[in-house]
């Protein structure tokens, strides 16, 4: 099958078109490693296609309407527009700093998008596929959709693990059920349409039973933050119906839909399979638009064995990893350590190990050894190679066959295997050095030509590696090329040719491409972090409001008569005096405390500590070693004042 595809790709004459999309992300959360994964993955695919010379277009953006966003804006105390501007800006800035080469960033609040949504809705309406009716069901605001009883896990939302609320409303409905037989047949006939296969099977499973009609509107009185329906302005468009259309509206708004739409490749994770595998194809069918080429569905990055969540406090932020390890190393890890379609476990230690083994050891060493020897034996200038011996030709073949093999792997979503095959060739090059022993050749002038050939072969291996890895580590690939003395544009075909480095080129050995990570120090710092971060549940503003924080002035402090570690403090709280027993004795001399103003929790139920009733608690910061520091106020403020 691979041979067949190879033949096919060779025989393609016209410039292929590639249009790839990420989901448009909800703006109720900031970008995390999951969003970064899909976006980086599409970036790598897009860069690879550009390298092949394909006419490539890459779309990403943000999903900004609906009840969930409206609620998030309320909670932030901002208008939905101001709020979405802010968070959408954060997504865009994050992608910019992660070197995401998107061609377009779409926001569903843009007018150009809303116009196309209206147009598509009208088409579906004119096609007789919209009806008005009442619907009742279990709704998840997090997913912005109704769930059937069968889809629930232990009666809860499978994505958010919450009990869903029953809702019933008068809405407009899209006659989705009508298209079920068509979609089923389509999926039966096109096994690759949704891939990998497990997700196709999941959608086929859904289609085996009635899917019902899809509620596509919300009463404007309840959810004003949305696009009004073109035929009834008392209702706004359901957020998924609005959002999915982004993939088309982005093109339509500048007239390129005829060019790119027929080639669209969607990339999503498994969480949004149903909207993309069931809602979207039926919507397109009704609107008379062609279907996507493939729906490419990947798994989830898990953290600590489960889903990341704010409440567990384990959300992994891509910019933190970029700052710590560099963006190219982070991208490499993301693509190398997840098999497309399967879940993967994020581990910072795993990331560091990957850097050390593949990037610092295998690739970095090959560069350093090659340029080191070139400096020592040939003043850093690229020599002219002599005739190739079988061992040289074998290394050449290991590299020049890679472009075609990688093309097939990337087309089949095997990004991890594609990277691994480049690294295998890099390891072969290291082995080649060990076997050809250039340092031994250098000892005898009679072997000068042989040494030239060996060094040149290593340089060519590095040149090819720089091309093949450029979609994954774009900046380091440039740096690598600069050290090789190469500049300018290059294509994938350049990695099929051997001997493109001109003799006489001056190389410039620079700093190591990927510095090694000190694993022992990393393990230690992670242990400390673990100890500091207790996973606390998220609280609502109402939970917070139940606590009363006040400023208290310490009037006097003395040692607790029956406890070594405790002080007994008399504090003034406005007109009131209280006794507070506190465990700060180790860090504070009682005589130095009088007159200090601190923050206390004033409405704690009193407790007796070693026989003395404590009527409150002083807030103190505690570091990883358990050292305490009481909260100090930097301005004089009356005791009894509230702290919020
Ligand atoms: N707004 C919708 C998508 C509309 S597309 C027309 C949405 N947004 S989202 O912000 O929740 O993003 C979901 C997507 O983020 C996933 O499909 C996936 O691309 C990415 N990921 C979120 N968490 C993830 C992981 N833990 N692991 C991998 N990808 C994840 O749904």
UniProtKB/TrEMBL annotation:
It is found in: Cytoplasm. InterPro entries: Anticodon_Met, Met-tRNA-synth_bsu_C, Met-tRNA_synth, Met-tRNA_synth_2, Methionyl/Leucyl_tRNA_Synth, MetRS_core, NA-bd_OB-fold, Rossmann-like_a/b/a_fold. It catalyses: tRNA(Met) + L-methionine + ATP = L-methionyl-tRNA(Met) + AMP + diphosphate. Keywords: Aminoacyl-tRNA synthetase, ATP-binding, Cytoplasm, Ligase, Metal-binding, Nucleotide-binding, Protein biosynthesis, RNA-binding, tRNA-binding, Zinc. It is an enzyme of class 6 (ligase). One of its GO terms (molecular function) is ATP binding. Binds 1 zinc ion per subunit. SUPFAM superfamilies: Anticodon-binding domain of a subclass of class I aminoacyl-tRNA synthetases, Nucleic acid-binding proteins, Nucleotidylyl transferase. A motif ('KMSKS' region) lies at residues 307-311. Residues 543-644 form the TRNA-binding domain. Zn(2+) binds at residues 140, 143, 157, 160. One of its GO terms (cellular component) is cytoplasm. Its EC number is 6.1.1.10. Its cofactor is Zn(2+). The keyword Ligase applies. One of its GO terms (biological process) is methionyl-tRNA aminoacylation. Homodimer. This is Methionine--tRNA ligase.
């Amino acid at each position: 099958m691979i041979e067949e595809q190879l033949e096919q790709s060779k025989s393609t004459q016209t410039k292929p078109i590639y249009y790839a999309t990420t989901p448009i992300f909800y703006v109720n959360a900031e970008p995390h490693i999951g969003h970064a994964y899909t976006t980086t993955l599409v970036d790598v695919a897009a860069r690879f296609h550009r390298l092949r010379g394909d006419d490539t277009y890459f779309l990403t953006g943000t999903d900004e309407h609906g009840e969930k966003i409206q609620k998030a804006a309320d909670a932030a105390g901002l208008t939905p527009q101001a709020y979405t501007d802010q968070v959408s800006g954060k997504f865009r800035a994050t992608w910019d700093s992660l070197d995401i080469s998107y061609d377009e960033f779409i926001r569903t609040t843009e007018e150009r998008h809303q116009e196309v949504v209206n147009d598509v809705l009208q088409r579906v309406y004119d096609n007789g596929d919209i009806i008005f009716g009442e619907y009742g069901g279990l709704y998840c605001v997090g997913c912005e959709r109704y769930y059937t009883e069968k889809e629930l896990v232990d009666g809860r939302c499978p994505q958010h693990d919450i009990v869903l609320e029953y809702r019933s409303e008068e809405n407009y409905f899209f006659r989705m059920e009508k298209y079920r037989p068509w979609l089923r047949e389509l999926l039966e006939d096109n096994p690759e349409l949704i891939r990998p296969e497990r997700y196709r099977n999941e959608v086929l499973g859904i289609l085996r039973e009635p899917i019902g009609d899809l509620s596509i509107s919300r009463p404007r009185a309840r959810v004003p933050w949305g696009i009004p329906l073109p035929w009834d302005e008392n209702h706004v468009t359901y957020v998924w119906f609005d959002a999915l259309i982004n993939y088309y509206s982005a093109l339509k708004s500048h007239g390129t839909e005829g060019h790119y739409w027929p080639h669209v490749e969607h990339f999503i994770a498994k969480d949004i399979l149903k909207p993309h595998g069931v809602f979207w194809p039926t919507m397109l069918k009704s609107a008379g638009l062609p279907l996507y080429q493939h729906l490419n569905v990947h798994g989830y990055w898990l953290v600590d064995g489960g889903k990341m969540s704010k409440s567990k406090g384990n959300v992994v932020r891509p910019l933190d990893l970029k700052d710590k390890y560099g963006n190219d190393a982070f991208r490499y890890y993301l693509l190398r350590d997840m098999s497309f379609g399967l879940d993967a476990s994020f581990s910072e230690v795993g990331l560091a190990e990957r850097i050390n083994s593949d990037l610092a050891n295998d690739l970095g060493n090959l560069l350093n050894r090659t340029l080191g020897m070139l400096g020592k034996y040939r003043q850093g200038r690229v020599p002219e190679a002599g005739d190739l011996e079988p061992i040289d030709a074998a290394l050449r073949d290991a590299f020049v066959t890679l472009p075609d093999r990688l093309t097939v792997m990337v087309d089949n979503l095997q990004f991890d295997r594609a990277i691994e095959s480049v690294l295998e060739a890099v390891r072969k090059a290291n082995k080649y050095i060990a076997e050809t022993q250039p340092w031994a050749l250098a000892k005898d002038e009679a072997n000068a030509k042989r040494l030239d050939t060996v060094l040149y072969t290593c340089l060519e291996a590095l040149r090819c590696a720089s091309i093949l890895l450029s979609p994954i580590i774009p900046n380091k690939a440039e740096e690598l090329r600069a050290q090789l003395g190469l500049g300018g544009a290059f294509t994938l075909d350049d990695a099929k040719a051997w001997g493109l480095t001109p003799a006489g080129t001056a190389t410039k050995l620079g700093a190591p491409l990927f510095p090694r990570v000190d694993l022992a120090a990393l393990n230690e710092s992670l242990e400390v972090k673990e100890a500091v971060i207790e996973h606390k549940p998220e609280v609502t503003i109402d939970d917070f409001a139940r606590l009363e924080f006040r400023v208290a002035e310490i009037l006097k402090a003395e040692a607790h008569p029956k406890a070594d570690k405790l002080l007994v403090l008399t504090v003034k709280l406005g007109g009131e005096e209280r006794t507070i027993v506190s465990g700060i004795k180790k860090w504070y001399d009682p005589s130095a405390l009088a007159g200090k103003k601190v923050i206390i929790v004033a409405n704690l139920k009193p407790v007796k500590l070693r026989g003395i009733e404590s009527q409150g608690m002083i807030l103190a910061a505690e570091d990883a070693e358990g050292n305490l520091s009481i909260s100090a106020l930097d301005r004089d403020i009356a005791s009894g004042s509230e702290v919020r």
